[in-house]
């Protein structure tokens, strides 16, 4: 069976975090079940697994990964309500992060058997998608040693700030969760957490760095193009029913 490098793209608009998480789980589990079913079939009888790239914005929400510490959330339930925010413990890697309006979240649900079976390479490709896109806006971004995500001035402890957080889950080489890219984000919400469990570095957003709001439709197209090139894939837009 040939590798399926088609990626179905869905723009989910603004969606409640739990609703979107459930939708991710549905696509993720369908892909895994297809892989399991294929093992019992002759090669010519097997059905290729599907790949997805979901873009979404969430209402204000804090999520804590499997390895995270609840102490990194600095709000109690009443204070969360006052800030019109919710909180979830979830099954990705990483610590605590924030999602909200103006932040572009991407959830690639890929069968890495269609591309390469290397989770570290996968994370570097996600980071590189953001780095290449920022370069189109005249911003030099990079990585911080030992920390996932995309950073500005990572080599200078006084200036280092994160512009895109990442956390993924992978099972049977199928991925879910992804990145939270601060495009036009309200950064004050990061004051309520120790972002990603890192106490000595700040966060930033693209609109803050540029001094102007960024067109979301424009940046989505740039991200899709760079993602497609890096993964040597064909992105096919799909209407969400």
Account of the protein in words:
The protein has helices spanning 17-38, 77-82, 119-135, 206-210, 216-230; strands spanning 6-14, 51-57, 61-64, 86-89, 96-99, 103-109, 142-144, 147-152, 161-171, 174-182, 202-203, 234-237. By secondary structure, it is α/β, with parallel strands linked by helices. The chain has a single domain, classed as 2-Layer Sandwich (BirA Bifunctional Protein, domain 2). Strands 1, 2, 6, 7, 8, 9, 10, 11 and 12 form a nine-stranded mixed sheet that branches. A three-stranded mixed sheet has the order 4-3-5, with no helix packed on it. α1 links the parallel β1 (6-14) and β2. α3 crosses α5 (216-230). The two termini are 29 Å apart. The model has no long low-confidence stretch (mean pLDDT 92).
